[in-house]
Amino acid sequence: MLTGKLKNQVDEIWEAFWTGGITNPISVIEQFTYLLFIRRLDEIHTARVKNALVMETEIEKPIFGTEQDSYRWSKFKNQDPQVMFELVRDKVFPFIKTINGEDTTFAKHMRDAIFMVPTAGLLDRVVTMIDKIDMDDRDTKGDLYEYMLSKLQSSGTNGQFRTPRHIIQMMVKMTAPKLDGDKSDVICDPASGKRYIPTFNNTPYMIQW
Q1: What tens digit of pLDDT does each residue of 87-122 get?
Q2: By Cβ atoms counted within 10 A, which residue in 77, 83, 90, 186 is the most buried?
Q3: Residues 146, 169 within the same domain
Q4: E-state strands within the chain
Q5: pLDDT of 179 strictly over 90
Q6: CA-wise closest residue to 26 among 123, 121, 148
Q7: Are residue 129 and residue 188 in the same domain, yes or no?
Q8: Distance (Å, rounded) from C-alpha 45 to C-alpha 13?
Q9: How far is CA 26 from CA 32, 33, 73, 74, 94, in A?
Q10: Are residues 29 and 112 located together in one domain of the fold?
């Protein structure tokens, strides 16, 4: 179980994703995991480079070729936020999805993976915080994921799986509720235990039962 400083670091990163617009706990874990994976790839590559220098041999199974050197965590983490954002979104993320080839089992599992970080500012903030996590302890990774899964469980219990804004807007457009004083339409969603009352600009106002 994570305790102390590391637990606080994970909580801060989780909060950064949440306030930055990624409010679905599953999506937070996915995006967090992708970035940890990108960092780990660079750590493995760096270790192989150092070993090759010591042994005075070629790098064994390099992860990044010369043309992908800028894709490494250690290379882009200090870049201008917008430059880093565009690089990770357009180059690094597609690269990790097919890192061992497009026909591998890994690539098939990653086929539907989506980079969801919405802004350069959020990515810069999260990358900075993830970079400060000490991952040298072999048990840290397992403890970290167990802790994130516990947050997922508590989020479900607390009803924190929120309907995305674009889905809400689509529902409002499809039902086209009318706002007319006491005669205003009221839409009941018994599955979620909430009711929606239209307000200005067809934006639903949500009230707990």
Answers
A1: 999 999 999 998 877 888 888 888 889 999 999 999
A2: 77
A3: no
A4: 187-189, 194-198, 204-208
A5: no
A6: 148
A7: no
A8: 25
A9: 10, 11, 23, 27, 20
A10: yes
Task: Report the mean per-residue pLDDT for the chain.
Answer: 81
Residue 158 has what pLDDT?
45
Amino acid found at 132: K
Residue in the block written with tokens 């801060």: 12
Q: What single-letter DSSP state applies at residue 58?
A: P
Residues 13 and 126: beta-carbon distance below 8 Å: yes
User: CB-side exposure of 167: number of CA atoms within 13 Å?
Assistant: 3
Q: What is the pLDDT of residue 87?
A: 97
Are residues 98 and 40 located together in one domain of the fold? yes
One domain for residues 82 and 102: yes
171 and 146 within one domain: no
**Model pLDDT, residue 197:** 43
DSSP summary character for residue 60: S
Q: Which is nearest to 87 in space by CA: 100, 75, 99?
A: 75
Closest-CA residue to 179 (of 154, 201, 195, 162): 201
One domain for residues 151 and 191: no
Q: Residue 117 sits in which domain range?
A: 4-157
Task: Choose the final residue of a domain: 139, 157, 175.
Answer: 157
For residues 196 and 167, is the Cβ–Cβ distance under 8 A?
no
For residue 118, the domain's CATH number is 1.20.1260
